[in-house]
Amino acid sequence: MLVAAAVCPCPPLLVPEVAGGAAPEMDAARAACYDAVGVLAAARPDQLYVIGPAEQPGRGPHPQGARGSFAGFGVPLEVSLGKGEPAKRELPPSLTVGAWLLERTDWTGCPVEGLGIGEPLARSRCVETGRELAAAADRVALLVMGDGSNCRTLKAPGYFDDRAAAFDAQAARALGTADTTALLSLDEELAYELKAAGRSSWQTLAGAAEGTGLAGRLLYDDAPYGVGYMVASWS
Predict the structure, then answer these.
(1) What digits encode the pLDDT tens for the residues 78-117?
(2) Which one of 20, 86, 93, 150 is most buried, counting C-beta atoms within 10 A?
(3) Residue 92 to residues 57, 116, 121: CA-CA distances in angstroms?
(4) Superkingdom, according to UniProt (predicted)?
(5) Is domain 2-234 in CATH 3.40.640.10, yes or no?
(6) Is there a contact between 99 and 68 (Cβ–Cβ < 8 Å)?
(7) What does pTM read for this prediction?
(8) C-alpha 68: how far from its chain's center?
(9) What is the residue extent of each domain of the chain?
């Protein structure tokens, strides 16, 4: 059963070494992520899953010990998803950021595994996947990586779309109140058009949280680079 969840954005710019001189712009988001991960540890789960958007070949399960690298972003920094034997497949970027967060918060709790989720995954399949994760142990926690729309400003990577702010506001409200119905009502096609790399992960969380009665708290909601970044904790 799901006992806690942390929702964090997954831009590599969250990592100070990658952001370089722009690192202070993400200080508030980074601090909120640390707080959210702390809630996971306090829940004393038996199993932690780090889930996040992934392209092929990064989709699917990633075992404890799987490694990810920020070398593609110009930084010779490598992280590991918990302690274990290195896996053949490298973690996708979203799970690499998740693994970095766990390392920075000295995660020493339960076993941890990763799951890369295709952003086009249908809502019904997201729910099914979430239910499977929640049933994997008596006390399951999720670290849910994903971004909101990519179109909040003219300088955003996806350029400006006047629908983006409303979409992000809807997602932030749902995440901040642990409203699974509202999360599942997020429009798949609109999320795709707005390049929101969190919809499938959030709806997987909704499936995992069905009937748990968890309460949510929104810790951060902003778009410093024209991309919607949200941090929330559920417990």
Answers:
(1) 999 988 888 778 999 999 999 999 999 888 779 999 999 9
(2) 93
(3) 8, 7, 16
(4) Bacteria
(5) no
(6) yes
(7) 0.97
(8) 15
(9) 2-234
